[in-house]
Automatic annotation (TrEMBL):
It is a multi-pass membrane protein. This is Heme A synthase. GO terms for cellular component: plasma membrane. Its EC number is 1.17.99.9. It comes from Methylobacterium soli.
């Protein structure tokens, strides 16, 4: 039941829920951006303990800073890569990792406190509440995955985290973002007719391909595969590297994680597949539903995937400078967001509940579903 005061005012309470979900999505994107900067600056191993509560407070005295620095000096990364680093440089590393963890705590608060309020006010449907519960569990799991990832980089002989755990951490964050956007787009207070079955199927395929590509990109980042084969479209003269180079590691399954040649090749091939599917989907939508919201969204996705591919090529040719790598990672979140909104709206949405008043203004990519005059 909707509060009577809200009904009389003609305001749709679902809009507040959608705004909250999109705020959370923006915070997750910020989390991914700060996490990418943390990785690219080599800061991720500067905090050697997982303290979910007390870790929110950084060192506040010279003695506390010295104690944290001594813990870092006991890590393989310091002994192998950063021997002789001063306290001032360590504070920079520590600041990035502390900021990343603090942002994670903020995301948790922004999730749970409004969740309790909306639940108490009866603003959450059973389906939405179940979806949010699943995302809350996934968010808690993400924190544990993050620490497992960091712990992998503290093992003897390691100077960075394990690539597979980095890829898993990034992909889990992307799943959380996708879930938030899916739920928010489904709360539209305006009826949208479902797209034809073929378009709906391809629209669902696109975010799955984007998530796969994000996972493969995490493997590229974790194994530093972007620092080899800095040519395009060939890989140092070969469109397809020799098989013996693709499967040089034994056992062969480990090539998909530890062999920089195969890791980069897989990332390239999946990018080509994603761009091809996006373009064909856009052409299909233009022909079958000209001028529709589905067609406009499909065109937008095709444009974003092409731009992302060009950004990835630029990063590769420049040997992955920090700005290009970070932009490529963050732009992947934009592609995912657009693909998820498109997939959700392609299923159609129902009319807002009776008495909710004026139509809602679309958020972000949702505006592409509104028919122009």
């Amino acid at each position: 039941m909707m509060p009577a005061a809200t009904a009389r005012s003609g305001r749709n309470p679902r809009r507040a829920v959608r705004g909250w979900l999109y705020l959370l999505a923006a915070l997750v994107v910020a989390m991914v951006a700060v996490g990418g900067a943390t990785r690219l600056t080599g800061s991720g191993l500067s905090i050697t303990e997982w303290r979910p509560v007390t870790g929110a407070v950084p060192p506040l005295s010279a003695e506390a800073w010295t104690a944290e620095f001594e813990k870092y000096k006991d890590t393989p990364q310091y002994r192998i890569l950063n021997q002789g680093m001063g306290l001032a440089d360590f504070k920079v590393l520590y600041g990035w990792e502390w900021g990343h963890r603090l942002l994670g705590r903020i995301v948790g608060l922004v999730f749970f406190l409004p969740l309790l309020w909306f639940w108490w006010r009866g603003r959450l449907s059973r389906r939405l509440g179940l979806g949010l519960l699943c995302l809350g569990i996934l968010g808690g799991l993400q924190g544990a995955i993050g620490w497992i990832m960091v712990a992998s980089g503290l093992q003897p002989g390691m100077t960075a985290v394990a690539p597979i755990k980095l890829a898993l951490h990034l992909t889990t964050a992307s799943l959380i973002l996708a879930g938030l956007v899916w739920l928010a787009a489904g709360e539209r207070g305006e009826a949208i007719a479902p797209a034809p079955r073929r378009l709906r199927a391809t629209a669902l395929l696109l975010p799955a391909l984007v998530l796969l590509q994000i996972f493969l990109g995490g493997l590229v980042a974790g194994s530093h595969a972007g620092l080899v084969y800095n040519t395009w479209p060939s890989m140092n003269g070969d469109l397809i590297p020799p098989v013996e180079g693709l499967f040089v590691v034994r056992p062969w399954i480990e090539n998909f994680v530890d062999n920089a040649t195969l890791v980069q090749f897989n990332h390239r091939m999946t990018a080509y597949l994603l761009v091809t599917v996006a373009i064909l989907h856009a052409l299909d939508a233009i022909v079958s539903r000209p001028g529709s919201g589905a067609a406009r969204r499909a065109i937008g996705i095709a444009g974003l995937t092409l731009a992302q591919a060009m950004l990835g090529i630029t990063a590769l040719l420049l040997a992955v400078p920090l700005w290009a790598a970070l932009a490529h990672q963050v732009f992947a979140m934009a592609v995912l967001t657009m693909a998820v909104v498109h997939a959700r709206l392609s299923r159609g949405t129902v009319v807002a509940r009776a008495g909710t008043g004026v139509p809602e203004t679309p958020f972000g990519y949702e505006a592409m579903s509104v028919r122009r005059a």
